[in-house]
Amino acid sequence: MISYLEFEKPVASLEERIGELRGLDTNHEVDVAAEIERLEAKSADLLASTYASLTPWQKTQVARHPQRPHFRDYVAEAFTDFMPLGGDRYYGDDIAIMGGFAKLDGRRVMLIGHEKGNDTQSRIAHNFGMGKPEGYRKAIRLMELAGRFGLPVVTLVDTSGAFPGIEAEERGQAEAIARSTEACLALPVPMVAVVVGEGGSGGAVALASAERVLMLEHSVYSVISPEGCASILWRTADKASEAAQAMKITAQHLKRLNVIDRIVKEPVGGAHRDSQSMARTLAKVLGEEIDTLSEMDSDALLRMREERFLQLGG
Predict the structure, then answer these.
(1) Rounded to whole angstroms, how far apart are CA atoms 94 and 87?
(2) How far apart are CA 205 and CA 183, in angstroms?
(3) pTM here?
């Protein structure tokens, strides 16, 4: 069952009617096949037109959709031979950030990303994708391992931000995020980062400081959430929609501003409607990016990364 967002209610009504017609007794003389076909076409057109004109706030809702594929879904559908590696060798293991060796269509890579979970129990276990210092230190360890073995690094970014709890601050959250960002920038191997859902604040940048930064079509990437921005500017989260518009957080806005390099198209209706198709598309795009970057030597990669970030805002 698909969970419908508020702006999808007209589509939900049509699909509910289609379901009712399919449940009718086919022994009756009334032929409902033609009506089902008509409603399916109308629903598909409405879904396509709705998603072709989403506002930034609506895209934020899509990026947060509870059924949107996360790290473990992409591991299952787009990668093979995933060998998870845990622990930061200092404090413990943080499963809000996961990673390990994997293969992408035969290419050996180091895969790292945020995992939000897909139900109440797993979301709590994964801390809703909000990484703690040990998670970012684990990411640093895996990136250094990738550099040692000459493996390209792929990161899947999907977090509202790093965990802001007092225990994270006690264990050096800011320092861990800064060092993770530094580790990305210093990598001697290719790195491709993809914002697959939410890319929030330094918690996202710490895994996204790559020479190639991609975003899924309906993902968002910002320094603060629209609600947080609205609370600061207008002292109310009710103006989150206006904040999202002003902040230019969508993939389309950020591509025009050269903050990201490429937009990965999603299935009509969002990645949550066809996660397998989304995973296949992402695998193909990642393969293309890695093949191109693998032709460059370490010095060229470091220079490309440096120039990319120094030119932002120029």
Answers:
(1) 7
(2) 11
(3) 0.92
